[in-house]
Design goal:
single chain; 93 residues; mainly alpha; 1 helix; 88% helix; rod-shaped
Length: 93
């Protein structure tokens, strides 16, 4: 049967210190990684807000272009009606 001596040795102390240092390193790395992820999420959120604003501005411009096009169509129809009326008057003897 193995024999265990109840003493604290330099090896025991070195093992405990190494374990604590490694644990601290893991905690530091995890906290650093989490902080980086938070920054990335905030950056992506900011870009999403910018994109939402840009899309809204583009939708407004598209609506304005559609309204302008509709007005131009109405004007062309009025001009065609006027041309037909003039042609009808000219065709009469």
């Amino acid at each position: 049967m193995p024999h265990v001596e109840p003493r604290i040795t330099i090896g025991n102390i070195a093992s405990i210190v190494t374990t604590l240092v490694a644990g601290g390193g893991i905690l530091f790395a995890g906290a650093s990684w989490y902080g980086g992820q938070t920054e990335r999420v905030n950056a992506i959120h900011g870009m999403a807000l910018e994109n939402r604003a840009a899309i809204s501005a583009h939708e407004t411009r598209i609506r304005q272009a559609e309204q302008y096009s509709a007005r131009m169509d109405e004007r062309v129809l009025l001009i065609l009606d006027t041309v037909r009326e003039i042609k009808a008057k000219l065709d009469r003897p």
